[in-house]
Automatic annotation (TrEMBL):
Protein origin, superkingdom: Bacteria
Boundaries of every Helicase ATP-binding domain copy: 35-206
Residue numbers covered by motif Q motif: 4-32
Enzyme Commission designation: 3.6.4.13
Keywords for the protein's UniProt record, in alphabetical order: ATP-binding, Helicase, Hydrolase, Nucleotide-binding
Keyword Chaperone carried by entry: no
Residue ranges of domain DEAD-box RNA helicase Q in the record: 4-32
Residue ranges occupied by any Helicase C-terminal domain in the UniProt entry: 235-378
Gene3D superfamilies linked: 3.30.70.330, P-loop containing nucleotide triphosphate hydrolases (3.40.50.300)
GO molecular function: hydrolase activity; RNA helicase activity
EC class: hydrolase
Protein name: ATP-dependent RNA helicase DbpA
Keyword Hydrolase: yes
Species assigned in the record: Massilia hydrophila
Length: 469
C-alpha cells in the first residue's frame, strides 16, 4: 500500500500544520481517493467501512472552501444519530483549528429547541445534525440553509434504514441547487442509489476495501519524565479525544491507579485486570462495547481474547518489555477500523524497550513531545452513553424488543437514543444516551411500583439501576 501525505493536496500551510499536530500524516485510503476530487468541488459517493477516516475526507472539503469571515451556514452535515453527530462535530472542531474561528453547531433531538434557536441566531458556519431535528427547524423557519455550499450525507445507508428519507429530501430542497454534495455510506445498495441519485450531480464514485494491516496504525512515542505518567495519559486523551481507548498498564496496581486518576479528571474509565469476578468483568466489557465507558485500562492478561470493535486508540501507559506483546497490543486498533492510533509513553529508563520494538518492527520510532499538544479547552469528554441494568433477563422471559418497546413507549425515547441491548440470563443491560437517560427511565416508574427503583416493562415491574462508571 502506498502512503500519501496530506502535503500533496493544495491546502494552506496552517491547515497542514494542524493536521500534523492531530497525528494525521498519511491519508487513509478513502481520503487519498476522494480528497483531490472533493477539493476540486466535485460531488462524491464514497463507500467505506467505519473507522476509515470519512469524517476528515468531507471535513477537509467543507473547511477548505469555508469563509470564516462570512457568518452564514456554509456546510451542513446530516448524520443518523445524535451520537454520530456529536462525534462528527468534535472531529470538525479539531480540523477547524487550522482555519481560525469557525462556529460549528450540532442540531439533534433529545434536547429542547429553544437553546438551539438561540445558538442559530448567533450564527454558525457549519451545522451537524440529525434529519428529524433539522427538518423541525426548517419547519419553524429557524434555520436558513440558502447559503450551504457543501452538503454531506454521512452514513447514508443508516439514515435511509431509519426511515429518514422524506426528511432528507426536504432538507436537500432547502439547500441551494448550486452546491457540492458528498455522500458517505458503509454499503451502497440499489435502493439508496436510486433514492439519492437526484441529490447528486455527476458524482465521482469511490469504494475502499477495509483490509489493512499495521500500516494503517499511526504509531507515536512520547517521552515523559519519571513522574506524571497518569497525567500524560489524560493529556493524550484530552488532545486526541478518542471515543474508545484501550490503555495498557504492566501491573494490576497501575491499572487501578490510572483508571482512578482518569475518572477523577472526568473520563469514563474502568480498570480490567485478572482477579475480577467474572460478572464484574462481563459488566465492564458490556459498558465498553456499548460506549458507556470510553477508556478501558487493562493488563495484557486481562485483555487477552478481547474482541473489541471500533477501537480507535491504544495507549501504552507502560511500554511492554516484549516487542511481540507491543505489536499485539497496538494491532487491536488497526482491525475492522482502518486507521488506528497507537500512543506509547516512555520514561528515560524505558528507551531500551523502544529500541527492541524498533528492531522488531524494522522501523524507527516516531518521537513526539507532550508539550507540543495544545491543551484542549473542552477538557475530558465523558462517554456518550450510560448503562441501565435491569434485574431481569432470559429467565424472566425478557427480550430486547420488550426493553426497547418500554424505552421508546412509556419512557419516551427515540429509537436512536437507545444503544446496545444485552439480555443475559438474570440481568439485562441497555445503553442510553447520557443526557436523556435519567429522565426517561424515571418515567418507567409509577405509584403502583413496589419501590422507587422499579420500572415497568410490558406490564411487569423490574428493579433497575444505572451502572456507575
Ligand atoms: P469513519 O467516519 O470512516 O468511521 P472517522 O472519520 O471517525 O471514520 O475516523 C476514524 C478515526 O481515524 C478517528 O479517530 C480519526 O481521528 C482518525 N483519522 C482519520 N483520518 C486519519 C489520518 N489520516 N491519520 C490518522 N488518523 C486518522
Ligand atoms: Mg463516520
Amino acid at each position: 500500500m502506498t502512503t500519501q501525505s496530506f502535503t500533496s493536496l493544495a491546502l494552506a500551510p496552517r491547515f497542514l500544520a494542524n493536521l500534523a499536530t492531530l497525528g494525521y500524516h498519511a491519508m487513509t485510503p478513502i481520503q487519498a481517493e476522494s480528497l483531490p476530487a472533493v477539493l476540486e468541488g466535485r460531488d462524491l459517493i464514497a463507500q467505506a467501512k467505519t473507522g476509515s477516516g470519512k469524517t476528515a475526507a468531507f471535513g477537509i472539503g467543507i473547511l477548505h472552501k469555508l469563509n470564516p469571515a462570512w457568518f452564514a451556514i456554509q456546510g451542513l452535515v446530516l448524520c443518523p444519530t445524535r451520537e454520530l453527530a456529536d462525534q462528527v462535530a468534535n472531529e470538525l472542531r479539531r480540523l477547524a483549528r487550522g482555519v481560525g474561528n469557525v462556529k460549528i453547531l450540532t442540531l439533534t433531538g433529545g434536547v429542547s429547541m429553544r437553546p438551539q434557536i438561540a445558538s442559530l441566531e448567533h450564527g454558525a458556519h457549519i451545522v451537524v445534525g440529525t434529519p428529524g431535528r433539522i427538518r423541525d427547524h426548517l419547519g419553524r423557519n429557524t434555520l436558513d440553509l440558502s447559503n450551504v455550499q457543501t452538503l454531506v450525507l454521512d452514513e447514508a445507508d443508516r439514515m435511509t434504514d431509519m426511515g429518514f428519507y422524506d426528511e432528507i429530501e426536504g432538507i436537500v430542497k432547502a439547500c441551494p441547487q448550486r452546491r457540492q454534495t458528498l455522500l458517505f455510506s458503509a454499503t451502497y445498495p440499489d435502493d439508496i442509489r436510486f433514492a439519492t441519485a437526484a441529490f447528486l450531480r455527476d458524482p465521482l464514485e469511490v469504494a475502499v476495501e477495509s483490509q489493512h494491516g499495521a500500516e494503517q496504525i499511526a504509531q507515536r512515542f512520547y517521552e515523559i519524565g519519571f513522574e506524571g505518567r497518569d497525567e500524560a495519559v489524560a493529556r493524550l486523551l484530552r488532545h486526541f479525544q478518542p471515543v474508545s481507548t484501550l490503555a495498557f498498564c504492566n501491573t494490576k496496581v497501575h491499572c487501578r491507579e490510572l483508571a482512578e486518576h482518569l475518572r477523577a479528571q472526568g473520563f469514563s474509565a474502568l480498570a480490567l485486570y485478572g482477579e475480577l469476578e467474572q460478572q464484574e468483568r462481563d459488566e465492564i466489557l458490556v459498558l465498553f462495547a456499548n460506549r458507556s465507558c470510553s477508556v478501558l485500562v487493562a493488563t495484557d492478561v486481562a485483555a487477552r481474547g478481547l474482541d473489541i470493535a471500533n477501537l480507535d486508540t491504544v495507549i501504552n501507559a507502560d511500554i511492554s518489555k516484549d516487542p511481540e506483546v507491543h505489536v499485539h497490543r497496538i494491532g487491536r486498533t488497526g482491525r475492522g477500523t482502518e486507521s488506528g492510533l497507537a500512543l506509547s509513553l516512555c520514561a528515560p529508563n524505558e528507551k531500551k524497550w523502544v529500541r527492541l520494538i524498533e528492531e522488531y518492527q524494522d522501523a524507527a520510532a516516531d518521537w513526539h513531545r507532550l508539550d507540543e499538544l495544545g491543551e484542549d479547552p473542552d477538557g475530558a469528554v465523558p462517554a456518550p452513553m450510560v448503562t441501565l441494568c435491569i434485574a431481569g433477563g432470559k429467565k424472566a422471559k425478557l427480550r430486547p424488543g420488550d426493553i426497547l418497546g418500554a424505552l421508546t413507549g412509556d419512557a419516551g425515547l427515540r429509537k436512536d437514543q437507545v444503544g446496545k441491548i444485552n439480555v443475559g440470563e438474570f440481568a439485562s443491560y441497555v445503553a442510553l444516551e447520557r443526557d436523556v437517560a435519567r429522565d426517561a427511565v424515571a418515567r418507567l416508574g409509577d405509584r403502583q411500583a413496589p419501590g422507587p427503583d422499579f420500572g415497568a416493562i410490558k406490564g411487569r415491574y423490574f428493579k433497575m439501576r444505572f451502572v456507575e462508571v
